[in-house]
Amino acid sequence: MEPQSPNQTTPENFLEEDVHIENRELRFNVREIFSNLWNLDWSKVSWGFVIFCVFLHICFPYGVYLALFSAQWKTLGFALMLLVMGELGVTMGVHRLWAHCSFKATFPLRAVLVLFQTISLQSHIYEWTINHRVHHKYCETDADPHNAKRGLFFSHMGWLMYEKHPEFISKMHCIDMKDIENDCLVMWQKKHYLSLALLVSFIIPTLVPWLCWGEHLLNAVMVPVFLRCIVLYHITWSVNSLAHWIGGKPYEKNIYPSQNAVVAFFTLGEGWHNYHHVFPWDYKTSEFGGFTNINFTTLIIKLCSKVGLAYDLKTVAPEVIEKRARRTGDGTYKGPSK
């Protein structure tokens, strides 16, 4: 039997009704949306995030316009660099390093990843980690913070706009966070998160293009800050939504997480979600790695390992992967990667 991770999702975590989850319909029902809004308990809405999110989406089309027709190419390159840095802070940092402990990193690499994760503006590492560990342990139940059974919009972004379910609050206190609490960098970021996020995700990204190459101040605010922020948000959120709805399930057919190559491309390798929920301790979050298999984050971890910045990379033996896929997969497994 393959080893079990403390945060691994297994078929036993799911109700009998989930056996036929392929019967789900991915649909857009306007009447149902208005019905849900009508019956919503508005006192539980997180209005601060809702207002911030609405503001970002209002800025989005104007930011795209400025990026295409007004901003300098240096500003576009700078915004793209911040986007990739933020993505790596999420994928390589808070997800693979801290949430799953799938590899270890030296102090300099951890410091860089703390910086990158702060740039992503997705809350501090402690909160992100505990949310994700609960998600894996109680996936697609009321304790799951972004339960896909509550709909595509909820799992994508609605979960951030509404008060957490009581089951999540209850289960959250059962999650072991001692490893995170013993990490001085993570706890320092948690203590100073608001000021750090304001500095590295708003102030510096605005000042650099404005002062260094004379970019118009409006372009410097809209493109490297607001446009970059909303694009990164939707890229990250797509893992919780699209990768729990669309794709094959070669490793475990009785769970929602799926293999989604499009999501993997935009998230630097996080879209191989069926594999990841079966083997969450694998640093690759996939059976594959590198450019050819759409897993850029894995390539970076390997490079860091080569120069001594990352070590103790955890993975799964090919024969264990194949055995699990043959036993519980949907029949689309093609054999171990070469």
Automatic annotation (TrEMBL):
Molecular-function GO terms, alphabetical: iron ion binding; stearoyl-CoA 9-desaturase activity
Domain remark text: The histidine box domains are involved in binding the catalytic metal ions.
InterPro entries (UniProt xref): Acyl-CoA_DS, FA_desaturase_dom
Organism the protein comes from: Petrolisthes manimaculis
Domain annotation Fatty acid desaturase: ranges: 73-280
Major subcellular location class: membrane
Cofactor(s) recorded in Swiss-Prot or TrEMBL: Fe(2+)
TM regions (residue ranges): 45-68, 75-95, 107-126, 193-211, 217-235
Keyword field: Fatty acid biosynthesis, Fatty acid metabolism, Iron, Lipid biosynthesis, Lipid metabolism, Membrane, Oxidoreductase, Transmembrane, Transmembrane helix
GO cellular component, one term: endoplasmic reticulum membrane
Family to which the UniProt record says this protein belongs: Belongs to the fatty acid desaturase type 1 family.
Localisation per UniProt entry: Membrane
Topological type in the membrane: Multi-pass membrane protein
GO biological process terms on file: unsaturated fatty acid biosynthetic process
Record-given protein name: Fatty acid desaturase domain-containing protein
